[in-house]
Design brief:
By secondary structure, the chain is an alpha+beta fold. Helix content is about 35%, strand content about 25%. The chain folds into four domains: about 100 residues, Rossmann fold (3-Layer(aba) Sandwich), CATH 3.40.50.20; about 70 residues, 2-Layer Sandwich (Dna Ligase, domain 1), CATH 3.30.1490.20; about 130 residues, ATP-grasp fold, B domain (D-amino Acid Aminotransferase, Chain A, domain 1), CATH 3.30.470.20; about 130 residues, D-amino Acid Aminotransferase, Chain A, domain 1 (2-Layer Sandwich). The chain contains 17 helices and 22 strands. The strands form six sheets. It has an eight-stranded antiparallel β-sheet, with helices on both faces. Helix 4 runs antiparallel to helix 5 and helix 12 packs antiparallel against helix 13. The relative contact order is 0.10. The C terminus is likely disordered.
């Protein structure tokens, strides 16, 4: 077993701070790296050491493999934690860490390559006997091949980038007339985003639920799952709200899908923390979607219901320790919901809203956790993902959790920028969400209720302003005509000043 004493966090913002908190509890020194735009970021202040790595664009800083390796060697870091995003699923980065004798806190480069390529991942999962969405076994050559596949699995279908993620390189085809443009657009977007234009086909599940399973696997062949997360509330394939347990689940389905998740991890000799993602239809049939070979944004809700610190487990596994949990030791306590707080304007097509934060008041109280990185006076840069924090709520059941989230969102005040807080409040008040009856089409199906009507808002504002002006005019008129109607003066002004000190 190798003892890790110093970890470089190759990331920024809330996830960097999240990792550093666990490191401090484990008496492990932390090293931050930062770009020109992040000189004043909270993760830089929180770490034991901090090193400048380049200009603001991520390609010149947080994606600069050699610069991060150079800093790790310079400061004497035993290990690197990549967080999520940036280099977290970059096999080249993991390989360079290994070459330099630095522990990469994550799976092997070979597994990252295998599971990062959706076609390879499907092949491995099919071999393991786990159901996958019907589609092509490999990449498609041209538009003619799409027509052949459609004859077998029927429309609608999804064109997906083999090296994809985050909704990039994906196109939904509902009509044959859309095939040529959709395939070309998906290839072009995939090439730009991932440097690989390979795409494949999957049958489109019309009312899908996005359910993912958290797994942990050590270097000794032990694998466990920490149950499911419901991630169906998405906008353009980006998650907004997650919860656990899923309101869709039955005990039988939970057990069956958990066993499939463990089997999938074992099939590729996985180590570390990872996530197996599934699509579930209305008849409760489930299909493997993909595997994320890293820590997920929404990992805190799993921590909240299981009591397991996933970052601590990642570090222990990287040190070569045997998993301290067995499957029968784990169960879900209560209910947890996470809302992602974005610096964007939901009522203006979700346009990013970078800028200076003047005031911020984060919610407190029983069952409330906030993972964030912004503070009063901090200026949110334009170069990175607009997520500024995650609000995590726990309650003894789903109803209590929803009510607590409503209260917490009401208390969450940020001025100076636009945020998604009000939009998230509307989700919490939506009857379909409250009833637990929703799938990945929730946002589009409830768009009218979730989006504030600009005309109604403008009319409401005008009425308030007009009423206030009318009130002031009446008061002014009364003051001029009759002293009896003068505005009352505060009685405090009549009390002489007393120095109490």
């Amino acid at each position: 077993m190798t003892e890790i004493k110093k970890i470089l966090i190759a990331n920024r913002g809330e996830i960097a701070i999240r990792i550093m908190r666990t490191c401090r509890e484990m008496n492990i020194e932390t090293v931050a790296v930062y770009s020109e735009a992040d000189r004043t970021s909270l993760h830089v202040r929180y770490a034991h050491e901090a090193y400048f790595i380049g200009k603001a664009p991520s390609s010149e800083s947080y994606l600069n493999v050699e610069k991060i390796i150079e800093v790790a060697k310079k400061c004497g870091a035993d290990a690197i934690h990549p967080g999520y995003g940036f280099l977290s699923e970059n096999a080249t980065f993991a390989r360079r860490c290994n070459e330099e004798g630095i522990i990469f806190i994550g799976p092997s480069p070979e597994v990252i390559v295998q599971m990062g390529d959706k076609i390879q991942a499907r092949a491995a999962i099919i071999k393991a006997g786990i159901p996958v969405v019907p589609g092509t076994p490999g990449s498609i050559a041209d538009e003619h091949e799409v027509l052949k596949v459609i004859q077998e699995i029927k429309l609608p279908i999804m064109i997906k980038a083999a090296a994809g993620g985050g909704g990039k390189g994906m196109r939904l085809i509902k009509k044959e007339s859309e095939i040529v443009s959709a395939v070309r657009a998906a290839r072009s977007e995939a090439l730009f985003a991932f440097g690989n234009d390979s795409v494949y086909i999957e049958k489109y599940i019309t009312s899908p639920h996005h359910i993912e399973y958290q797994i942990l696997a050590d270097q000794h062949g032990n694998v466990i799952h920490l149950f499911e997360r419901e991630c169906s509330i998405q906008r353009r394939h980006q998650k907004m709200v997650e919860e656990t347990p899923s309101p869709l689940m039955t005990p039988e389905l939970r057990k069956k899908m958990g066993e499939s998740a463990v089997k999938a991890a074992k099939a590729v000799n996985y180590t570390g923390a990872g996530t197996i993602e599934f699509l579930v239809d209305n008849d409760l049939n489930y299909y493997f979607l993909e595997m994320n070979t890293r820590l997920q944004v929404e990992h805190p809700i799993t921590e909240r219901v299981t009591g397991v610190d996933l970052v601590k487990q990642q570090i222990k596994i990287a040190q070569g320790e045997i998993l301290e949990y067995k499957q029968e030791d784990l169960y879900q306590r209560g209910h947890s919901i996470e809302c992602r707080i974005y610096a964007e304007d939901p009522d203006n097509n979700f346009i990013p809203s970078p800028g200076k934060i003047y005031k911020i008041s984060e919610p407190l109280g029983l069952g409330v956790r906030t993972d964030g990185y912004v503070y009063e006076g901090y200026e949110i840069p334009i170069y990175y993902d607009p997520m500024i924090s995650k609000l995590i709520i726990w309650g003894k059941n789903r109803d209590e959790s929803i009510n607590r989230m409503r209260r917490a969102l009401y208390e969450y005040k940020i001025t100076g920028i636009k945020t998604s807080i009000k939009y998230l409040e509307r989700i919490m008040n939506n009857p379909n969400f409250i009833a637990g009856k929703y799938d990945t089409h929730f946002i589009e199906d409830n768009q009218e209720q979730l989006t504030e009507n600009p005309e109604r808002k403008e009319f409401s504002d005008m009425v308030i302003i007009a009423a206030f002006i009318d009130y002031l005019q009446k008061i002014s008129s009364r003051q001029e005509n009759n002293k009896e109607f003068a505005l009352p003066q505060s009685r405090w002004k009549k009390i002489p000043y007393i120095n109490h000190f």
